[in-house]
Amino acid sequence: MVHKALCVRFTSGPRREPGPCLFTDAERERLSRFPRDVPPADLLTSFTLSDDELELIDDRRSEHNRLGFSLQLKTLPYLGSVPDYLVTAPARVVAYLALQLNVSGDALRHKTTAPTQAARGSANPTRAAGDSATLSRGRDRQRLRSIQQDRAS
């Protein structure tokens, strides 16, 4: 799924008409997925879990939750976003995090599935799964905005 947020459009004029997209389709696609591999130096500096992170991750119940959460936690600062499908993460990254957590590297693959062809072809895979998920995400975004506004004031 290509994130619409990655297509930043400049606006002009009093009516705020959309301008050209900041990223090309190829750039948006590259920015919305994991790289094919992560160099060993990056692996050590960006995917090593601290004691505080390990404590936070240990609050998760099952192996796949701990592994998935740690992958999201460490991927966000490394890439600047978290790709939609965690199972597409480089095997080296998953294995390194699994080793630190003492869990199976396959734990993530057993509970998470890759996108279906229908979802890949859809502009919005969430809608391919059902509108109730879309509505739920919208409410979550509203709550998050409310919390952020409260903290800012």
Descriptive notes:
The chain is mainly alpha-helical. The chain has 2 domains: 1-32, no CATH class; 35-114, no CATH class. The chain is 57% helix and 6% strand. The chain is built from 9 helices and 2 strands; from the N terminus they run E-E-H-H-H-H-H-H-H-H-H. It has helices at residues 25-31, 40-46, 51-58, 63-79, 91-101, 107-111, 117-121, 125-129, 131-152, and strands at residues 9-12, 17-21. A two-stranded antiparallel ribbon has the order 1-2. A hairpin with a 4-residue loop joins strand 1 and strand 2. Helix 3 (51-58) crosses helix 4 (63-79). The two termini are 34 Å apart. Residues 113-136 have low confidence and may be disordered.
Which features would summarize this protein structure in a list?
two-stranded antiparallel ribbon, 2 domains, 6% strand, mainly alpha, 153 residues, 9 helices
Number of helices: 9
The protein's oligomeric status is: single chain
Radius of gyration: 18 Å
Give the beta-strand count.
Answer: 2
Read across the widest sheet, the strand sequence of neighbours is: 1-2
Q: Structural class given helices, strands, pairing?
A: mainly alpha
- Biggest β-sheet strands, sense, barrel: 2 strands, antiparallel
Amount of beta strand: 5-15%
Query: What's the overall average pLDDT, rounded?
Result: 74
| Overall outline | globular
Secondary-structure element order, N to C: EEHHHHHHHHH
| Total domain modules | 2
